[in-house]
From TrEMBL:
Family to which this protein belongs: Belongs to the polysaccharide lyase 3 family.
UniProt-listed InterPro entries: Pectate_lyase_PlyH/PlyE-like, Pectin_lyas_fold, Pectin_lyase_fold/virulence
A Pfam family the protein falls into: Pectate_lyase
EC class (word): lyase
Gene3D superfamilies reported for this sequence: Single-stranded right-handed beta-helix, Pectin lyase-like (2.160.20.10)
Cellular component, GO annotation: extracellular region
Protein name in the entry: Pectate lyase
Domain of life: Eukaryota
Gene Ontology molecular-function annotations: pectate lyase activity
Amino acid sequence: MTLQARKPGSSAAVARTTRVRHKVVQRNGCGTVNIINFYAYDYGKVYRSCGNCNNQCQRTVYIEGTTAYGGGEVVGINEAYGDVATLVNVCTDADDPWVLYDGCAGDCKPEEVAYC
C-alpha cells in the first residue's frame, strides 16, 4: 500500500497482512500515518517513509498495538527531513525494528544511518 496524497493526515486501515516481500505501507506524501492494531508476518518493512521521492517533506508515523514477526524493520524514517516515529505497545522479533535513513531526493539511494 502506497500513500501518496500530499495532504496531512492519512491512516492505513489494514488489520492483517502476511507474505509482503517489500513494504506494507510506504508514505510518499507529507503528513501523518497511523497504523493501529495491526498484525504482520513474513514482511519486508511495516512502514517506510519514501527515501528518494523527488519532493521530500517531513513525515510522521504513529504505530500502536502492532505485532510484527518474521520480517525486517517495523519502521524506517528519514533523519534528514525530520521524520518522526512513535511506537506504542509494539511486539516484534526484528533485529532492528527502527531504522533511520539519510533520505535523498530523486535518482539516489538512501543509506541506513542508525538503528534503534
